Amino acid sequence: MLSLEDCIAFSGLTPQQLDAVACHEHLPLIIVAEWAETTLEMPDGCARVEAILAEEVIAAGLHHKDRLQDWSLGLEQFRREHTA
C-alpha cells in the first residue's frame, strides 16, 4: 500500500505545489498527487500546472496570505524545474 508521502514523491510536485493545486481544485491532496503525475506527462501538462500555481499565488495574495510565501516559492521552483 502506498502512503501519502509515497504518492507525493511520485507526483512530480513538491508538497507546497500540491497544496496550492489542491486548494485551486478543491480536492484532497492524495487525489491531486495522482492528477499531477498524470498531467505532467501530457504535452500541455506543465503549462496547465504552471497556470494553476500562478492563479493560486494571486489568490494567496488576496485570501490566503499565510500561504503566499510557500506558494510563490513553489511556483518559482516549478518554473525552474519544468519549463524552459
Structural summary, described in words:
The protein is mainly alpha-helical and 84 residues long. The chain has one domain. Helix content is 75%, strand content 0%. It has helices spanning 4-11, 15-25, 29-39, 45-62, 68-82. α1 packs parallel to α3. The protein is globular, with a radius of gyration of 12 Å. The termini are far apart. The mean pLDDT is 92.
Question: Concise description?
Answer:
This protein is an all-alpha fold. The protein has helices spanning 4-11, 15-25, 29-39, 45-62, 68-82. The longest helix has 18 residues, at 45-62.
Question: How are the elements arranged and paired?
Answer:
Layout (H helix, E strand, L loop, with lengths): L3 H8 L3 H11 L3 H11 L5 H18 L5 H15 L2
Mean pLDDT: 92
Number of strands: 0
User: In what range is the share of β-strand residues?
Assistant: under 5%
Which blocks of ≥5 consecutive residues have pLDDT under 50?
none
What's the number of helices? 5
**What gross morphology would you assign?**
globular
Q: Report the end-to-end length measured between terminal Cα atoms.
A: 35 Å
- How many discrete structural domains? 1
How big is the Rg?
Answer: 12 Å
Helix/sheet category: mainly alpha
Provide the succession of SSEs: HHHHH
Helicity level, as a percent range? over 70%
- Biggest sheet descriptor: none
Which characteristics define this entry?
84 residues, mainly alpha, globular
